[in-house]
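Thread: sanity check for a docking pose with zinc ion

Original post by kr_44:
Hi all, I'm comparing my docking run against an independent structure prediction. Below are the sequence and the ligand SMILES. Could someone generate the full complex and paste the structure tokens? I mainly care about where the ligand ends up relative to the chain.
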Amino acid sequence: MATVCLSFDFDAFSGWLRDDGSNTPGNLSRGEFGDIGARRLLALLAEYRIPSTWFVPGHTIESFPGTAEAIVNAAHELAHHNYAHENPRALTEPEERRAIERGIAAIEQVTGAQPAGYRSPSWDVSHNTLRLLSEYGFEYDSSLMGNDFSPYRPRTGDVINAEGPARFGEKLPIVEMPVDWSLDDYPYFGLRWSTGLVGLRTPSQVGEVWRDEFDWMQSHVDGGIFTLTMHPQVIGRGARLTMLEGVIQHMQAQPGVVFRRMQDVARDWAEANP
Ligand SMILES: [Zn+2]
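Reply from moderator J.T.:
Ran it for you. Here is the predicted complex with zinc ion included:
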């Protein structure tokens, strides 16, 4: 028995709004392509009858409301990704609260309900993030890498520095659905001159890594949860979509593999691990 969670970080323009000079018309057009990629992905998911999870900043929801509605109408999960892709590491606590609250409000406009899940932009969190998410009632976070194919409860108040051994803080009620850069399309395919990232890898190489990781989990982790992170503006191009379709077919051909939304998986795990 294995679970696959396909997740999509639909950043659109919000990934190009940093103060590092990225927000040029050319880069913003790359974000705009995310909307086309999102539509293609929704069609692919419908064809294979796969439920999935979409982490969408409030800025994207408000800029592409029709696509946000299409995600929800197809019974995919709409989850939190801050308002304008703010990196929590760079925020004061009041600023981080504002980004969280604006993101919640945008999601509530579409779904009528508070989101269950949160993923931090750039997978960076501040020392406050996990505590704040628990306070705001999130059921799960998907930003940390303290395990690979098994959820766990993250902590607050860790003291880890070079002065002595780690002192672990208290576990929080929120569930961590762990991620990894090797199961993310951005490092492989992304290109960002300002950071020196030049991915542009061959899709078949990436498909090989993802299939092999999945196969390892299948044979070594009973009840493992395979979370794949993708960005519509990155994965939404022809040859990459073909690769993703091949990976989906590979997984669906294995016995006992189910595709689920992350909120459903996190909820079941929390119930089984009170
Ligand atoms: Zn993002």
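The domain at 2-272 is CATH 3.20.20.370 (TIM Barrel). Hope that helps with the comparison, let us know if your pose agrees.
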